[in-house]
Each structure stands twice: as structure tokens, then as C-alpha cells.
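Repro case for the chain-ordering regression, as requested:
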Amino acid sequence: MPQEMTFGEALLAAIDEVAEQDPRIVLFNPSFAGEAGHEKLAALRKKYAARIKYPPIAEIGFCGIAIGAAMAGLRPLVDISTATFSYEAIPQIVNEAAIAYSNSGGQTNAPVTFYLKFGIRGGGGVQHSGSPQSWYWNTPGLQVVMPSTPADAKGLMRTVLTKSKDPTIFFGHDRLLDNKGVVPDGAYEIALGKADIKRAGKDLTIIATSIQVPRALAAAETLAKAGIDAEVIDPRTLQPLDKPALLASVKKTGRVLITDESHDNCGVAAGLAAIIADEGFSSLRAPIKRVSIPPVPVPYAVPLEDFVTPMAERIVDAGRALCK
Amino acid sequence: MLPDISRDRQLAILHKMLMIRRAEEHCVRFNDEHTGLIRGHFHVYIGQEATGVSVCDWLSPDDYVFTTHRNHGHVIAKGGDPKKVLAEIIGRATGYCQGRAGTFHVAAPEVGVIHTSAIVGGCLALAGGTAYAAQVKGEKAITVVFFGDGAMEEGVFYEALNIAKLWELPMIFWMENNYRRSGRGAGHAALELTNVAKALDVEAAVIDGIDVGTVHKTAKDIVGRVRAGQGPLFVEARTHLWPGNAFNMPKLVGGVTDIAWAWDPSGAPEKVRDWHKSHDPILNYVRELAGAGVSRADLEKIDADVRKQADEAARFALESPLPQPQDAVKYAFAGEGN
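-- result from build under test --
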């Protein structure tokens, strides 16, 4: 029976399924649960205690150790916790893990997974609201996974843990952790590089990642009342990227709005816009529109934070402008 | 002193030290005699051969070694093929990494050097990772991470050492101090770098890093103890910076090493005379072997054999093809990528 669970619980379920079968899975600091999953997290921690480490507050140290362990045949899953803490480990993630396979001419790979709780969480302020997905997407050698639903989170986590040959940055938005969704039965996998149409439509394509998917779906309902039939497509992974699916949707609708909760400048939306401009220009009947975070560190107070957050209303406004 | 091992094994160590020296002399000559053959700057291991060779003499093929921007010596010491090292240094398709790595990042997974970082301190934590993996898998393999005095200026050194101690990882932090960065006024507030390790409760020894006997004996002890579960341990092996080394573009300031200088130090050019007379681990070792009864003819024959092999390796590298341009985009991803 398919069952309802939260995003955090779905991650825990995937980890449990895989770790049970594969002794190479080791966990650093697992805390994926969110509020709803606390009991399940405690059970996971107990069940796999022998394969769990709680390292000191030393990101460059323990991320490097996880990368080296992956090179030596383990499959570590590192919960970085807040995404910005990964900045402390950039030298190891970007300058060692990402380059190892290429540098060695295809001899050494590092199938390590870093889980990053990212995004504007509400009061995180300038240092706990980070969205570094475009940095990591800009780093050849890293896979970038950003699911939006519990079902996708579970299937993608399973794929990454069982099949991945490369280092992976797995993004879970803080505000998605307690979102509930129906999760299929059994041990299913979702291939990397397969986009998913979350809502079919004919007038406008909204490409949305992670937290922006539920926001885009809400926006699409509002737009529908105004007679605009929006398609919401979720790439689910940025690297690898399902370019054909995105371009096909743009070809169908002729209009595209891209929304991602990272900064405008050189952000994910900018990167996707460039691909569509390069490869799908002839499909476009209107300029490409981006809805993301303006180029300012995310501030703390409610009105300031709300102003920079790419909420559904901003997607609605941009969609209306595009379809005028 | 000579290591307390069979004469054959003593001579095999000399052979390997000379192989590193001769291969790296070719490396410097590549740069001096051919424009653009070595792209950018480079570093060599000349003067530190006693430590890499003596430590690796106690390692098995399954043990992991991590190295630095001075990697050529460690790769050969661990059993790497000088042909593939020299070919990689000049970016050839036949090199260890098919010309993708170059002089700074030579990795030779077939001999346990699975990844090489030229970033100072870049491999310290990764080495903790291979040690941790061996621990989890219940394997006997240990990890040795070689690094220089400069790497201890990096924060990752502290984090890696701290975690290694907390998790009792089977690894050796082997610092080769060539005095490039240590000492008052350079990069360290600490005058005794082993005190940094001792502060984290990691047992640390200081040894003469140019004396083969001392290094070999220490390595036997340390490797054995780490294999028995007493890791991590820390060693500072003190060497003397080779006069040609004090640049980003090393130069053979006294020409190639002439083994005859072991018997007649005055024959060496003045710029390198003192170094070869007192601080060159290879010529010191040759003198000790001669003093223990190995004939000059036998020692010169070993050198001649090595030179022949190194010359062949250099020729192999120079005659090897460059990689195909379109291969540039290969290997970004081991999996599907795109």
C-alpha cells in the first residue's frame, strides 16, 4: 500500500532500505528527520550505530574523510546539516572530490553523498539561509539532486546511495522536511536526469526546483483562475539535467518562467535560461522570465525576508506578465 | 647508519632512491632543454628520497599512500613506473593519468596512490578517509600521508589529526620537513612542530630524514604499530632543502648528481658541494655502503643501471603521443553525467 509520509521520513526510509542491504553505507551525523521523523531517526541511529559517526565540528576534516573513504570503496552519506556549513569544506568537495575522477583519467571515483539542508528557512538570517545549488552545479564532477516531494526524495536517495559513481550534493529544503506526500510501495528508484511534469498545461512552462515546486503549483492554480494554463516541470536533478524534457515543454507552450530559491546572478534559473536561449530560442514567443532571490544576503526580520523570498505571488505576477 | 636488513635489500633501496633522483633530473631537464614541455611550474623531491623509499619499503601494495606537489618520488617509491610518471609530467597519453594530471597531480591507483592533490594539505583528510574505510571494512591496510612543513599551516591539518586521534585511525602522518616553511619568522609560531601533534595526544617523533638507517628503522616500528592498531602516529623527518629546489622552477644548479662525488666531494660544483657532501641522502648512503664493504664498481654499476632505465623512461615519455583533443571532455563523471 502506498503510504503518506513526510519528506524527512521518506529520506530515512530510503536510507534504512539501502543500509540494510549494503554494509558499505556509512552515515556521518544523520539528522534528516524534520519534526515529524524524530522517532524514526532515533530508530535509524540505533539500528546502524556501528556505521554512524558523529564527527567534531570540523567540516573540512570530516568531509575530506568521507571523500577519502568513498575513494577506498565505502559509500558515505554525510549530513552537512545547514547547507552553508558546506562552505567550510569547499576545498575538499570542489577541489578534491569533484576532480578526482577526471584527474586520474577515470581510475579513482568518489561516490560520497552530501546532504544539505538549504534555503530560506524563516529567521535563518544571512548565514543560515544559504542556497548554494548553483555553485555546486557550476562544478564539473558533482551531481546535484534537488527533489521536491517525499516520493521523489525517497526514490532519488535510493538511486544515489545504490547506483551513484560520483560525488553527489543532495539538496533538501528546510521547509520541505515536514511536507507530506504519498510514497509508492517498495524499493523503487528514480533515475537521475529525469524531469517530472508536476502539472500539465499549455500556455506557460514553469520550471521549478525543490521548494519552488509547491509554490509553482499554488501559483498555477491562481493563474488557472485567470485563464492561464501553466505547466509545472521539475527537473529533480540539475546534474545530470533532463534538457530534452525542459525543451519539449517550452516548445509546447512557447513561454517559460524559471523559479529557484537561489540568487538571480549566475543562479540556477540563469543557467537554465541560458540553455533554453541557446537550444530552444525558436520555441519562444516571449522573453524568458526568472523568479529567484535578488542579489542580497538573506536578511533576518520578517518583512525583509519575505521581500526576497520567491513566493507563489511573485510567480503569479511573472506568469501574468508573460502571458499578456 | 645502514638499515639492519640484507645487503640485497639495502641495495634495492639505493636503486630506488637513485631511480627517483635520475627520473627527477630528467624532469628538470625537460624544463631546461625544451620550451613548453612542462607547462607551468613544478616541484621535485630531490633530497628527500630516503624517507619516501624507506617508509614504502615497509608497505604492501594494498596500503594507501598520499602525497603532495612533490609526488614523483612518492609514486616511484610506492612502486610506480618511472615511464608513466615522466610521461604524465609532460602530459602524454601514456602517463599515469593520460595527461590530465600533469606534474602536480600524478595519481597511480595501481600502486595505492589513488589521488594526488597539489593543494597544500589537500590529502590530509582524504588519508583519514582511506584509513577509516580500512577500519570499517576490517582490512589490514594502513594509510601513510606524506606532507611538508607548510601543510601544518593549513587548518585542515588540525581537523584531520584531531579526528584521526578521536577515531584511532590506522594512519601515519609523515611530515617531511625540508625547512621550506618552518622556523621562526616563516609560517609557524611553534618552533617544534611535533608539539602541535603532541597537544592532541598523538605520539610524535623527530628523526634525521636523510639517514636511511634511521628512517628505515623508524618506519618499521611505526608501520608495525599502526598496523597493530596503535594509530595514528606522527613523524617529523628532517631533511635539507636541495639547493636547486629554492624556486618554483627547480634548476640543476650543479648539474646531475655524479655518484663519484661520494668518494670525492671536492669534484662537485661549489653551489652544491656542501649539500652533496653532508646533506644528500643518496651520496651519504653510498658512502655508508662503501664503508661497509660494497665495492665502488658495484655501486657505480647500480647507478649505471638506474641511469639506463631512467633514460629509457625519459625517451618513452618524449616519444609518447599527446592525448586526443576531444578527450578533454571525458571523465568529468564516472556515471551517466551529461
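Ordering looks correct now. Chain A touches chain B through 49 residues (CB under 8 Å).
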